[in-house]
Amino acid sequence: MTELRIDLVNTGWDCMDYVRQLRESGLIQGKDFDFWYVPYRFDAFGGDEDRRHVVFKFTNEATAVFYKLKWS
Question: What is the pTM of this model?
Answer without folding.
Answer: 0.80
